[in-house]
Amino acid sequence: MPAMAGWTEIGDGVFVRRYAFFDQNIGVVLAGDDVMVIDTRSTHVQGREVLDNLRELTTAPVTVVVDTHGHFDHAFGNHVFRPAPIWGHAGCGPFLERTGEARKAKIAAEEPALAADLGEVVIDPPDRTFTETAYLDLGDRRVELRFLGRGHTDHDIVIRVPDAGVLFAGDLLENGAVPSFGDAYPLDWPETAFRVAELAQGVVVPGHGDHGGAGFADAQAVAFGQLADLGRRVHLGDLTLDEAIALTPFPDYPAEEVRRPLERAIRQLRGELN
């Protein structure tokens, strides 16, 4: 898929490019001779497209890659960025190793146009990991990697570029759709999202859709809290699932799209999620 547009500079030396496939944002931070790429897309073909598009910004090689989390659309392109070190949360590698091959088969069935490209993918987990906070010195600037708690998965991180006032939130935030709850922890996500909002200094880049600011991050956190509360009310018998769906905390999208998130919240309340 082609990019929807070129690179947008959202802070000094900090860029985002929005790709049509899954309406996804890929970030780049430039600092001296260092080039950081945030997320690597869904296949080696898509990863190489990022590398080609980078030539519009710099001729320098990629020196650092960061995976916001281990879902296929964020980490299956990793291998083509080697030998650059790849950073991620300590839980990202085990997640990729545990789920990667099965996800390749599942996505190939769901997205037939990707099937051949997925066959080429080498699952290549991060080789530089951390549990809470890591600081990366790039050129004359410092970039902060933070794990703020469970949410979209149990290992999502955010990337903060303090001197540029930019925060890459990965899929802890999403704009233009109801966020994905397939591997989520709905009861934990509200507090984690509020922590994301507290770090917002200026531009906040979600994993998918338009970038925004602190207000956007706050609104998502509030919606996650409302969804968790609806799940609790269903669990307690105060509402039926259909009644809770009708009270969707994401009113701009079809109400039925919160069925799976609510079911996931109820499963967590029942103690069915580790």
Give the SSE order as H and E letters: EEEEHEHEHHEEEEEHEHHH
Number of strands: 12
Content-based structural category:
alpha/beta
Adjacency order of strands in the biggest sheet: 1-2-3-4-5-6-7
Shape: globular
**How much beta, percentage-wise?**
15-25%
Over the alpha carbons, how many angstroms does the gyration radius reach? 18 Å
User: How many alpha or pi helices?
Assistant: 8
Terminal CA distance reads 36 Å
Major sheet details:
7 strands, mixed
What does this protein look like?
33% of the residues lie in helices and 21% in strands. With 274 residues, it is of the alpha/beta class. The strands form two sheets. The chain has a seven-stranded mixed β-sheet, with no helix packed on it. Strands 8-9-10-11-12 form a five-stranded mixed β-sheet, covered by helices on one side. Helix 5 runs antiparallel to helix 6 (214-236) and helix 6 (214-236) packs across helix 8 (259-269). The mean pLDDT is 96.
